[in-house]
Amino acid sequence: MMTAPIASSSLEATVRAVSGDLDPGDVGLRGRLDEFVIASVMRNHDLRVGLFRFAEAFPAMEGPDDVMAHLRGYLGHDAMPWWVRLPIALAARIPFGSRIAAWAADRGISTMAKNFIGGRRAADVEPLVRRHWDAEVGVIIDALGEKTVTADQADDYAARILDIVAHLGRAAGSWPASPGLERDQLGVLPRVAVAIKPTGLSAKYQPLSAEIALADVRRRLDPIMQAATEHDVMVWFDMEQYAVKTLTQRLFADISHDWPNAHIGIVVQAYLRDSFDDLQRIIAQERDRRVPIGIRLVKGAYWDYETVVASAHGWPQPVYDAKVDTDANFERCSLLLVDNADVVRPSFASHNVRSLAHALAAASVRGLPKSALEIQALHGMGGDLAASAAKAGIRSRIYVPVGELVPGMSYLVRRLLENTSNESFIRQNRSKQMSRDQLLAAPRFTSKEDAA
Amino acid sequence: MTAASSRSLEAYEPEAMRAWHLPGVVERFAHEVEVADAALRGLNVPVTIDGRPVATEDGIDSFDPADPTRIVARSGSASAAVIDEAVAVANRTHRLWSAVPPAGRAEVLFAAADALRADRDRIAAIEVFEAGKPWSEADGDLCEAIDFLEFYGRAIVELDASLVVQSPLGEANSAGYRARGVTAVISPWNFPLAIPMGMVSAAIAAGNAVVFKPAEQTPAIAYEIVKAFEAAGLPEGVLSFTPGRGEVAGARLVEHPDVATIEFTGSRAVGLAINQRAAASSHSSRYVKRVIAEMGGKNAIVVDSDADLDEAVPEVAKAAFGFAGQKCSACSRLIVVGRRYDEVIERLAAHADTFILGHPKDGATSVGPVIDADAHERLLSVIDGTRGTVRYRHQRLPETGWFVPPTIVDGLESEAPLRRDEQFGPLLAVVHANDLDHAFELANATDYALTAGLFSRSPDAIARAGELQAGNIYVNRGTTGAVVGRQPFGGMLQSGTGPKAGTLDTLRALSSAWVVTENTMRQGFAADLVT
Q1: Which residues of A touch B20 (CB under 8 A)?
Q2: Which of B307, B313, B457 lies at the smallest CB-CB distance from A149?
Q3: Bond into B499 cis (ω within 30)
Q4: For chain A, which domains are there?
Q5: What φ, ψ does residue B261 adopt, rounded to 5°?
Q6: Tell me, what's the ipTM?
Q7: Which is it for strands A192-196 and A138-143: parallel, antiparallel or unpaired?
Q8: What are B274-326's pLDDT values in tens digits?
Q9: Nearest residue in chain A measured CA to CA from B136
Q10: Which residues fall within 8 angstroms of residue A196, CB to CB, at 6 or more apart?
Q11: Which domains does chain B have, with CATH numbers?
């Protein structure tokens, strides 16, 4: 679409104005305590790595003595602060010390996990979903699980998605009306949404076996699409590692074509250097679809992985090296989405207030109705942000992982790593390291080619 | 100096494998496979001596193991007399080539690397048909071949400086390496380009003339080594190519009095025989023959009780069944610690069941055939004859071709062939261990010591990984896929003589060190004291 560029002065003024809508305000004593603990952990790299690795391995440990051995290995050595080292040393000496330590570890990890995982299955998560609905916040349910390396695991993953679709789809019928969540400027929206990780639907999901992989996925996905259509549930296709990006985009295009009435959405990862081109292509491809597709713009959750894989193989880096480039690209993509809000449904998933405020401001400057955009945030991390946005009349959805604590651990750790990264607005805000001006400053590409 | 420093060992980087997910990569490779499919029928691969093809009475056919009705290549078959001719040429050119300074030899290696790079997918496509390699495996072999050229080219220039000598007052000492003598290279079919390229390029880098006898099953790929060096401008006669029968051409090479060094990769039985014959024939030679042999393994991976099965299962499966288990680094024994024994086996089996067995010309194929009819028959009889419990046997095999089902067996006695002998096929023996001590004891209960693996999330266990008896130990990854410059490769005990491939040590083994000491004091007058 040919539109005049937005003048940066009016945009920046609007960014400042709308950023207030996203401020979660005071998080209370408990929130401040959490912030303090997280800040202490974040300051010590060894401690952070030790804690995460311990928590990640915890589900596989065999009994208290094994837990104790891992605690000592990960957290009992000299690089640890005394207040971590000492209790472990003590527990190793006292009677029943191992049991106490194992109990404490279990409690700590379960408590943390409950913050981030909505429940074991669809039935458990229903009250949470309903509470959000009553607060005018929608949900996207994500089924956590092991890596799919077998056909049974793929079947199991599909069955869990189907359960979520059927259960919550049915339950949603009895909820009271919530006009802001059920309609946008382009039409009606489903009450419930589910996220799908395509790698979960086939153990053969890789580019060399593309045709077989897609057929294998479709065998499990088509019944899900059928149920989603019947129960009026939106299906989001999550983006995973770069090596399967093209495959997932192909899968999405096929599904869009074969299920023309389904509500579907795709994710674009702004940390990818080719994401802007992808976004342009996806919009061009899908602009005439009867039911406009959703596009969720994210920064991307696999930065470490992509960097390591590309570097180890001698491949070009698919991701931007610098965080600021990702941020700048996010905003460039946001503008493109805003300018195409008449043909696709943009949503923005980030916990960075500047990034979100920029998208909202651009829409406002363009004169789009508030309903044209959606904000998405993670359960246990962005709940406050989504709630304050919802109060300000911005359509918000929470992305809620559902699953067992044990297989959910690796997911949890990844979220924690993101949560405690120094890019987190909330942490930066409270640690008072940065002024509001710094936090809301416009990101600029580090090189001219990227800006072009 | 800028050019030299960019070609230093420090700046060496391995060749990038094909990134199948990037645009056009699959399509380009698929095109070369199609071309090879149409063209590879009875390709002529001549014995080549002094840059010229030599006609031989006999010939050897190579087959597509996934479709044995296809003869891929017809190679010459060197007789003892042809070998004698090749060694005579090598003996003559050896003097000229060894006089070329290391930097000049290195240039030839770099040019050969460029030649391979320019033709990568075409050569990899030959491997797909002649060695039965799936695309990624074939591509990996190409990369490794290029890596050896780039590595040894850099290493030879830095070799002399590694021999440090001191010169006190009144004495000037200098030292360096010179070529050892004509080198025989006897190579296997499983890495039909990379392994012989590693052996040939190291010998050539060190200044030796080479007589190269490739495996009978893969002459067409081996011939690409000759072509790459020809394109690189290697003087004629430095590299002779003598495909032939092991018992004829190989035997004569080993016993020839003018052969100084034998580089061999293959089975333990043949390696030990070569060692013996080389020693015996040294009596009638100017050389005390040196054998550098890499002879396989019975490699174990230990999966600790706390291992991440999301990682361990696919990695073990790849190490055990990738390229149908026909790698010397392949995992053939899995040792599972603790309570999750059955869970590990079941998930591994279910994962192996997602493998696609088929003709490797199809990019989706994850496991191809084994190399020939003999291997096929032998491996099937091992499976059928086992007294253990077959926990898994892949059922979806193509109707033609030498396919062996990926198979998982447990309940085996410690002396059972599946636990004791290298099978070189997609057969995995699984053993339960009570704890890590027990697991390491089981893992080390073999005469081989090539690779070993450990999957664990326990810092204590990981710190003990060095207790595994192997030349290459891998923690939280599979045992295959060593990369030149990152994992110098080679084993201990019956796995080989050493030195490891991809090291300065290999160049030293192919060289002789010299030291010159000059007394600089004349008639009580020390030149170096004069200021």
Answers
A1: 206-208, 243
A2: B313
A3: yes
A4: 28-114 (no CATH), 118-407 (3.20.20.220)
A5: -135, 140
A6: 0.94
A7: parallel
A8: 999 999 999 999 999 999 999 999 999 999 999 999 999 999 999 999 999 99
A9: A208
A10: A161, A221, A224, A235, A236, A237, A238
A11: 2-12+23-295 (3.40.605.10), 299-475 (3.40.309.10)
